[in-house]
Amino acid sequence: MILVTGATGTVGRHVVQGLLDAGHAVRATTRDPASAGLPAGVDVVRAEPDTYPLAGVSAVFLNPAALPHGPATLLTRAAAHGVRRVVLLSSSSVLCEENPIGAHHLALEQQVRSTGLQWTLLRAGVFAANALEWADQIRAEGVVRAAYGQASHAPIDERDIAAVAVRALCDDSDALVNAAPLLTGPEPLTQADQARLIGDVLGRPVRFEELPPEVARQHMLDAGVPPLVADGLLDYHANAVNHPAEISPAVATITGRPPHTFTDWVSTHRAAFE
User: Fold this and answer.
1) Is 117 in a helix, a strand, or coil?
2) Quick one: CA dihedral 46, 48, 50, 54, positive or negative?
């Protein structure tokens, strides 16, 4: 049995399906089991880490976003119940010095390392799914307004993160034990490039309109983004301006297939932008 936290999230749903396809029993956590809409055969439980049923669980996929009070309780209980491995959805921001988001994820990584369990830290780069934050603007005006249009990233498809997670949860070899693979998409793209590619898929122009960082920050605050997160995101983008994103071979090496391109991802999510 494998426990998947945040099972209805962007990555979690694909992890659940991948585990089922590989023939594994899955226990999935969600805030509202009644509306989860997960496949038949999944043991769906409410997201209460103090009471997660861990008997018989061999591995845990840990999505910190599903544990707003932190993973300490779940990790302590997992060790006590004989869980063998923890796979943490972390962030490539841990590689950015003095970035508050990176510091947060480094602390989470340290908590997982200190359990004494086997661990894999999935240091995922910028999610392609972050582009969904632009969907309203694109539908209404065919524009993306944001700061740092020349910030270069290698957006990664959530399906590729999930595929690596499934390998890490299931593989009995030592290849991913106590490893921290950097996960990226296959190509460096600026934010302006991403807007253009969305337009290519839609068959109509989508332009990028540069915002001053302070204006972009206020927009994020108005949308409910905590100041520390807003500052961390802007710092992350600022550091990526005019610096081509690092491309990692990890997805292809671990899964045996190339990662999806950003155009692949947009084509899958085209309806969100139309």
Assistant:
1) coil
2) positive
Q: How many CB atoms lie within 10 A of CB 194?
A: 26
Residue boundaries of the structural domains of the chain? 2-124+157-183+246-259
Q: Return the CATH number of the domain spanning residue range 2-124+157-183+246-259.
A: 3.40.50.720
Cβ within 8 Å of residue 97, ≥6 positions away? none
Instruction: Choose among 158, 146, 174, 164: nearest CA to 236.
Output: 146
Mean pLDDT by 10 residues, the chain (274 residues): 94 96 94 87 86 91 89 91 95 85 91 94 96 95 95 97 96 86 96 97 96 94 89 89 90 96 98 96
pTM: 0.94
* Residues 6+ positions from 137 with CB-CB distance below 8 Å: 143, 144, 145
